[in-house]
Amino acid sequence: MAFSPLISSHCSSSSSTSRILSPTKLRPNLRSSSSSSSSLSTASNSVQFDLKTYWTALIAEINKKLEEAIPVKYPERIYEAMRYSVLDEAAKRAPPVMCIASSEIFGVPRSAAFPTACALEMIHAASLIHDDLPCMDDAAARRGRPSNHTIYGVDMAILAGDALFPLGFQHIVTNTPPEVIPENRILAVIAEFARAVGSTGMAAGQFVDLRNGNGNGDREGVVEFVQEKKFGEMAECSAACGGLLAGAADEEVARLRRYGRAVGVLYQVVDDVMESRRDGGEGVKNKKSFVRLYGLERAMERAEELREEAKRVLDGFVKVYGETKVAPLYSFVDYAVDRSFVVGDGEESNQGSSLKSSL
């Protein structure tokens, strides 16, 4: 899945909802004002970065390419259902934006990364359609409007999700320029997609979430697993795919995985904290939340740990590729905490309150 003020290495339960943590020094140091412009500071120099402009510009390009990728064909109804979720104007497009940002560290042209980026959004939309089903999370609304099955029916929603998964694979294969991205890298990206959505990835998180829905899910190991798989897996895949497209070294791809996983879980932990505050500190409805397991104060500390973990992972990239190329990924981390501006056409307050909102 922008960034705002410098965030502290300690947490305070008295902070406002918009500022989960308080300021402190970071190394490297990402500072944001009340606007969307940030600076990445090191001992040598300072790099200015405006995440909002970067993210908004990419959203416009991604939306256009997604519109072209899913034209209405026969049978029209299934394509309409697919487009309803994929082309949602409130979507933040964080998976494709994170993919492009990570690929640009290594110099991959955007034109070569866009097919994978758009496929990530298709996979993301498919997973949300299925998560919202009555037999899964039973969510009647998504991003402030009716869920896919509420409009098109459960049967059509299942088919729309089923169709989007393979469409994502097909889109990568047929649209990635082979003269820029060799075949072995394309295969590696497809394998990464399959891993992320499969029985060791998001499907595993959904299974454990359902299996422990009777109240036994407050155990620490279960909560950690569900959060990592349901909310960290998509971001992990998005960041890793940027490196895979570039043919990055295995160790670099592994670091991108750790970064994405930390940011994905961080975003959800902050969502839980924000919801708890709106509810007067009574906790959140989601039984698999850190707030319910640890309490508000410890959940805020966990958010800070995840933020620091994500930034530590990026430090190695700065040493090799420079601050400018890594600035977007640094910025994602602080935005996950501060939510300093609205992404997409939805209201951030609504996005933040949704237990299913994601990067």
TrEMBL record:
Alphabetically, the GO molecular function entries are: metal ion binding; prenyltransferase activity
Q: What is this protein called?
A: Geranylgeranyl pyrophosphate synthase
Q: Name its species.
A: Stephania yunnanensis
Chain intervals with Low complexity compositional bias: 1-24, 32-42
- GO cellular component, as recorded: cytoplasm
| InterPro entries, A to Z | Isoprenoid_synthase_dom_sf (IPR008949), Polyprenyl_synt (IPR000092), Polyprenyl_synt_CS (IPR033749)
Region named Disordered = 1-42
Single GO biological process annotation from the record: isoprenoid biosynthetic process
Q: Which Gene3D superfamilies match?
A: Farnesyl Diphosphate Synthase
UniProt KW keywords: Magnesium, Metal-binding, Transferase
CDD domains found in the cross-reference section: Trans_IPPS_HT (cd00685)
Q: What cofactor is this protein dependent on?
A: Mg(2+)
Transmembrane stretches, start-end:
none
Report the family membership.
Answer: Belongs to the FPP/GGPP synthase family.
PROSITE patterns listed in its UniProt record? POLYPRENYL_SYNTHASE_1
